Queue: 2 jobs
Job 1
Amino acid sequence: MIFAHDTEVALAAAAALVNTVDGEDERLPDLAALDEFVRTWGWSGQRQRTAKELREVRALRPRLREVWTAEEDRVVEIVNELLREAAALPQLVKHDEWDYHLHATPPHAPLATRMSVEAAMAFVDVVRTTELSRLRICDYPDCDNVLVDLSKNRSKRFCESGCGNRAAVAAYRARKAATP
Ligand SMILES: [Zn+2]
Ligand SMILES: [Zn+2]
């Protein structure tokens, strides 16, 4: 394990959130899609289920995406800004099946605030351990998805949306074509 479990989960969730938009392709088009996303990533806490909530969650994505591409000093600015805006207050909590982990927002804070602070707290760990190089853009041609490399040998190159398989298939075809 590279980071604490809750940090790794938070990084994966933040990457998944960033990857819900790809140019014109909007994978959080409505509240039903947001519900599904929240369920998939096990978000607890209060929901408003309003257009505003959806708007705020969508607006968070470009800010989080910048963490994957920015230099360290800029990442620190973004992270501190996210924590400041939410007046984050770290507290150890235990709920559902989860053992003690950090929450830095109360359960009734807006969903986008809870998402941004959870991501920011995870980025804190990444910066503190000088592991920002683990946050990268997918290597597959024309894929702009972000990825979190939690492998021991830093070997992850592709995002979670099937680019790894696509690359393997392309490599196989290329090998086959090269065989006389
Ligand atoms: Zn929790
Ligand atoms: Zn990809």
Job 2
Amino acid sequence: MKANPLEINGEVILPGERRTLNIPVAALVTNSDVDLTVQIIHGKKPGPVLLVSAAIHGDELNGVEIIRRLLKLRQLNSLSGTLLVVPIVNVHGFLAHSRYLPDGRDLNRSFPGSAKGSLAGRLAHSFMNKIVCHATHGIDLHTGARHRANLPQIRFDPKKS
Ligand SMILES: [Zn+2]
């Protein structure tokens, strides 16, 4: 059985295709566009859609590298299902080496967001409605905050699994 085409932000991704989409979500103070960049590996065979995201906190860099390594896996060439990755969700924070958005808001505390809210709220809303909505499963990578050591942990809601 062959997978169906996948449509994200008006772009159609065919089974077996690997694409990178830049979805405009905001602007910098310089008026340069800020895009949510999502890479899509859409397998030829149907299956679950896994989203892996990182840097919702802009200073948590480990997840960005984890995704870079994930994208190199040879197994992705014979994937059943779809992998969506967003290596940097909080682009503003990442560029400024900051956990937060420029207005001090914590993107991780701004979900599900709103189309007319703060920058954090709008970013959360776009991420949810343009990318997360396509996923059947998700892994959002975090690390310990600056000057804080966290033990490895997995958090999930068993009622939603
Ligand atoms: Zn975090």
